[in-house]
Amino acid sequence: MTGSPAGAADPDPPDPTVTLPGDVVGRYEKFSRFNSPYPAHRRGRAVDLYPGDDIGRSPVAGVVREVRTVGCPDRPYAADEDHLIVVDLADEWCARAGAPPGTVARILHVIPEVSPGDRVTVGDALGPTTRSGFFGRWVDDHVHLGFRPPDADPLRASGSLPVAVDAPVEPVAWDGTGTVVERAPAHVVLDGPRRRGSSRSGSGPAFAAFASDEGVPLDGGLTHYAGGGTFGAVGESAVAGDSLSLLGTRIGTAVGHGGEAGSEPGAPRVEWAPVDVLANGERVVGLSLFAARADRVGVKVVCPDREFDIGESVTVAVVSSDDPIRLGVG
User: Fold this and answer.
1) H helices then E strands: how many in the chain?
2) Which of 56, 59, 63, 58 is nearest to 24 (CA)?
3) pLDDT tens-digit profile of 50-107?
4) Any idea where the DUF8155 domain is (predicted)?
5) Dihedral pair phi/psi, residue 22, rounded to 5°
6) What is the number of structural domains in the chain?
7) Whole-structure pTM value
8) Domain range enclosing 95
């Protein structure tokens, strides 16, 4: 006979994981679970979906319960308010995603053109995306998606359910070099390596991401956010306890989804090691990592205090640090 010791309470069952189907995520140009400083992302309980066309399309099906305008941090480059769309999920959608009936979706960063009582399906336009003060200046417009269990307060982010994505990601090796193809006030994009598979030709998985030296696709802000993560891979996947490196330097250790070891095999989060990212020998804020559908995996270098010219060759290095950059949410 097994069970809890006499007099001890049974442990609470783990929260169910909501798994986004691959055909839902495939409607977006990019996605990331860990590229954010906010607690829900750090714990693997939210996902950001990047539409690429400034239209906030619904990743869920159900009935809009509530629409609310919320305040956000005051940033000179961003709107001073954001918006929350709460959707009561259809039972059919819940069944596909492994969510309990009655689960509620929380959607942020979309200016709502829907109202309570409206029925939405996957792919419906909810409204235009908005750049709010919750964003870092280098962050592209996206749809933030999280889930609350039945009977929980849908307006609160804390207590959200774990989120997984049923879309394998191709790991792409990178030697740390590239040419600037895009420049913005707080970041540049380098022309990264071309992937083996192609979403356009139908060969290989839809998404690809930069890989660690061990061949594990990486997710998150390396290492300007306290933690990052990995993607479920085509090929090598990380498990809790694995040490990961990039460009010859150890960058962190894989741990369980939200800290519970082994709770999501193949896509754990990562506790970053104390390292700095250098671009042409000078320290920059970090690298912004995500899974993308493009045939060439571009490298986003976050560098608000460093200017690079279009066409300039850049070599990125990762080095150990006694004082790594860590950005908060204030």
Assistant:
1) 3, 26
2) 59
3) 999 999 999 999 999 999 999 888 888 889 899 999 999 999 999 999 999 999 999 9
4) 19-164, 170-318
5) -60, -35
6) 2
7) 0.90
8) 18-165
Total residue length of the chain: 330
Same domain, 54 and 172: no
Distance CA 168, CA 172 (A): 13
Residues 6+ apart with CB under 8 A from 104: 65, 86, 87, 88, 89, 147, 148, 149, 150, 152, 154
Determine the Cα–Cα distance for residues 237 and 80; give it in Å rounded to an integer: 40
Distance CA 98, CA 16 (A): 8
Same domain, 147 and 177: no
Tokens of 188: 């540049």
Residue 254 makes CB contacts below 8 A (sequence gap 6+) with: 216, 230, 238, 239, 240, 241, 242, 243, 244, 268, 269, 270
Residue 323's Cβ-count burial label (10 Å; 0-12, 13-18, 19+) is exposed
What's the burial of 193, exposed, middle or buried (CB within 10 Å: 0-12/13-18/19+)? middle
